Amino acid sequence: MKKRGRRFSFSLSALNLLSVITASVAAAAVCIAVFASVYSRSLLRDAQVNSEQSVSQTLAAINNYLDSMRERLITIGETAKKCETAQEFDTKISALTQIQSDIYAVAVYSNNGDIISCTGSGNTIKNYIYKNLSFDKTLFESAKDFALSSPHVQTLFDGEYPWVVTLAFKTDNPVFGNGVYIAIDFRFSQIAKFIDGVGVGRHGYCFITDKSGNIVYHPQQQVLFSGLKAENTDYISSLGDGVHTEKGVIYTLNTTSDGLWRVVGISFTDELAVEGRTQIIMSIAISFFCCAAVALIVLLVYQKQVNVPVRSLMRAMKAFERNTDEFKFSGGGETVKELKVLSDSFEHMTVRIKELMERVRREETELRKTELRALQAQINPHFLYNTLDSIQWMCEQGKTEEASKMTLALAKLFRISISRGHELITIKDELKHAESYLIIQSFRYRNRFTYSFDTDKSLENYLCNKITVQPLIENAIYHGIGGMADVGEIKITVKQADDCENDILIIVEDNGVGMTEEQCSKILKKERSDSGGIGVKNVNDRLKIYFGEKYGISIKSELDVGTAVTVRIPKIEQEAENEL
To answer: Does residue 458 register a pLDDT over 90?
Structure first.
């Protein structure tokens, strides 16, 4: 039969704990995953809405400012129409620039860019102007109504170079002649200050581009000029107005009402990830705390209702294995239906097993007694007849002393065989029984064999089955040395086993004709006593019945050398006899 390998096992408590933890973790993981997904999408939508709102507010402010610039330019144009001379126009414009601080200068340019009039700032206009950045003929000519320049440095006056944006339109005012441009240089600081103050998220910002994608103003202008930062203006210019998300960046774009500028809002989704992680970590902590609390309550209830009864039943089973005879079990305290059924079934089973064990003991005892009686009943009546006949012959020949010894030996033989009904006798008594048998046989087979005993005296008080050695001696006489012409020799040895200190070996050796290996194997399977005695096999079977399969008889033999029959029995003291 193939031996099964040892299988891994674990306790019910561990299984319960693992199941609850797994279920809790799975539930928490699913909830957190759903929450994280929903929350992340919600954060992204909120960020997009926030960015759109920020850009819309910035766009509204810039539109308002540009509308204000156009209204003031129109007002200046109306003022020019009312003036009769250029000097009158200069006087009125000078007063206007002093009142409105965001107007740095008002200039009138010819079609070729020559300065016809320039007023404002309170500074003196330069005698020689290297380059006038406020006049862009191409821009001015291409504009339908108003021309709006990019922010630039104003270079017309001495001592100050402010950052301005120029708004201009063409007029046919007769004061200055046909085909002239009136332009206002507005200080760009107000728009820049507003743009710098706009925040989109934690690290986001806004900037302005023209319709071609060129940057009009950026809050990090110096960083851009130094090359430490760059904006993907080509990609941004390809996007339409609205919200776009690409590679962790949220782009929000809106175009001013005149279509000349675009407000671009930049925010980053990694900010959402940081905020999301914080919220998710808090959610995980709260979820796991709640799951742990629920799991603890479930486990406590499960422990009381299931684990405790199961462990109690398990301890009862182990106690039943250790001490079946004295075991008593009474369940019934279980509230779980299945456990109550198991408990009741185990209680009924223990009662039934104890009844069956007691019945088996009684039957086994009777069986052993029956077997023993059957084995003992096999004592050859011819042996008794021949012995009595020999005694009668000795008496007729006047050999009364020998007849007396033979009669005494026969009496001892039968007295020890009876042993007051005991199956186990001391080794000492068993050897006396064997010696009585040898004495009788030595008279019958005069000068045919000799015998000797070699015993360990410390082992003689241990118990063995009665009539164990005699059948082996009988077998040695009849089959070992019976057919020899020379004098045979029988030796009985009692010693402790070398391989186990709790075992005893009784060895019966002869120098007879010996046996083959096949004959040694068969002798324990079939009766070999020609005299009809108890037989070696019966002795072997009886030893195994009493002591187990480990014990019994082993035979070693060699043709024309002799045979050694070894009996292995355990060390049994007299007070342990009743336990067998």
So the answer is: yes
